[in-house]
Amino acid sequence: MAMNNENEKKLNYTDIDEHMESEAEQHFKVISPGRMVAKRFFKSKLSIAGLVMIIFVFLFSFVGPLIVDVTWGYKETQVFKIERVADMITTAEFAGPDGKTYSYYDKSQTVLLFKAPPSASHWLGTDTSGFDIFTRLMYGGRISLTISFIVIFIETFLGIILGGLAGYYGKWVDQVIMRIVDIFNCLPGLPILLILSATISSIESIKAEHRIYYLMAFMTLMGWTGAARIVRGQILMLREQEYMMAAETTGISAFNRIFKHLIPNTMPQLIVSATLGLGGVILYESTLSYLGLGVPFPRAAWGSMIALADPSKGQEILAYYPNMWVPAGILIVVTVLGFSFIGDGLRDAFDPRMKR
Amino acid sequence: MWKYLAKRLALGVLILFGVSILIYMLTMLMPADYIDNQTAAALQSGAMTKEDVQHLKELYGLADKSFTGILKSYAKWLSNVMKGNLGRSFVYGRPVTEVLSDYIWISFLIAFISYILEIIIGIPMGIKAAVNQYSPYDYTVSVFAMMGASLPSFFLSALLMNVFAIRLGIFPLQGLTTATKIFGPNDHLQIFLDKAWHLVLPITVLTLLGVGGTMKFTRTNMLEVLNSDYIRTARAKGLSEKTVTYKHAFRNTMIPLVTSLSGMLPGLFGGAMITETVFAIPGIGYMALRATQQGDIPFVMGYNMFLAILTVSGMLISDIMYMVVDPRVKLS
User: Do residues A332 and A24 lie in contact, with contact meaning Cβ atoms separated by under 8 Å?
Assistant: First the structure.
């Protein structure tokens, strides 16, 4: 009987609650924090633009090669020999023995097999080795995106572990880890990566196509400090809050306190910095490829495609074949810009103080 | 305050020590074929003996590449550095310190001019964008700022070269001087103008790449100040919008600005590796890239240490400036 009474009471209470809730729902909408963030994110035009840009680059570089392979049956290293006749004009001026200046003009015709101009079958033409530029752009994007995501993922992971330990334990653990962070922060990034890649290419037991994995590892090593700093800073702040005290008094283990209660609260900042970091890795990777230290030839990378225009190797491509290097540069800018738009949008969306 | 500074300085030395060990280890990994390559001819002609080569390797601590060997040679290198001796560059055949002090000035000049330009252009743009937050002006400037930061320097350089050097022919493509022009010994003005003409494009590249950062930094900090209570008070007092913006808000935005901008000063000596190389400007970045590609271990070592020192001193300077600029800050 008593039980029944209690049940009735409960029912009554829930009835009232439900009634109130439904009334509240008529006037207000309950939104979860996640949805609120998403709503704020999609409110900004720049974030949407960034998202569209990144989706485009992703489709282009991951779905594009499949389509090319299925329809036309070639990959990035397929050589096309397209014959075309080009006029070669040589002019020179010289002073003759009689003191007059003569100009010399010679027009000859040569047959070129490579460097075809854009056409219906090769939208951006072919490059100095006869590769289809449009297809190579897709494969180059694959490399850049894959590298950036892997590097940022491992970097953030390392940063969470080390930053988490430093922030939670403090004292000497913090001292040691943060001094290591300081040291890594003072290492000059590009020169060190150059040294490392020179070393890797000199070691013969490392295959040329595996070089890029080593470089990725080094980029990760150089970059984890940012995430570690963020995590540590956040944890130092959060660890003094009441809910952590509650977690400690209920006897939750240190591991769970760090990784279940502290780390999830540092996620917003980490996601923002990781998104912004993706662009940075792409810039690094393309610089290394530009210097010939990234993905080895004949595989495609955006940086090495722009390297064709390097004026110290001759001005011909820089001047007359913008189809070979401008698209690669535009794709780099679109990708990096897309990531920064998304990163900025996420930062504003996560920040509850942001109001418009 | 002095105690704090001394502590920071000690920390800086400690960091540099750690950095030097790391860099030394890394540099030692580099292929040492350079000495072999360079001495091959001399060996064959008999100008050098095998002992000489071995001696040369020992001089640079390259003979013994085991862990203890590297530690030993590191100790030797460190004691030399204390005496101000960074060794002799393989590629350039001169003491590293001499090469550094010869070539940093042109790098510094380029970097300094673009630094000034960034400040002159970026700060007013940042202020205006913050004051008119979410206006079309704000959006345009922010997008351009982010585009500048997304451009790889070699791509921007190639674009500018294509348009201004090749198509329009206004500026020279590469180098610091026109090789075909012959100047008299007293044509200082012409030589100066010729050099300045060559530097326009590289400076433009560096400015375009950096101005976005300055602009965004100004905007963010200005927004933070504009949302604070004393700005509301200033407005409530009936001050004009101009006074509020420039006298109250901007002055407080100056604190983070001066701190970070002064911290950037030492870095201006470090050289812009890629930009200098693309434009073939003989600055320190260009020299360093060449040296790295050719395995010039003493120079690479010296240059990277130099960069680390610049970074550490930049951090120190911004710490000091933070105290100088903001009277509320008392560091301990």
Answer: no
Is-contact A186 B15, C-beta < 8 A? yes
Give tens-digit pLDDT for A106-137: 877 777 777 777 777 777 777 777 788 888 88
Task: Match 């949302």 to its residue by tokens.
Answer: B227
Q: Report the residue of chain A nearest B308, measured CA to CA.
A: A186
The two beta strands, A101-112 and A84-95, are antiparallel
Question: CB-based contact (8 Å) between B25 and chain A?
Answer: no
pLDDT in tens, A301-343: 898 888 888 877 777 778 788 888 899 999 999 999 999 999 9
Which chain B residues are closer than 8 Å to A198 by Cβ? 30-31, 292-293, 295
Partners of residue A337 in chain B, C-beta under 8 Å: 146-147, 150
Establish, for the pair of chains A and B, how many residue pairs have beta carbons separated by less than 8 Å: 138
Does A188 sit behind a cis peptide bond, omega within 30 degrees of 0 on the bond before it? no
* Mean pLDDT for the stretch of residues A200-225: 82
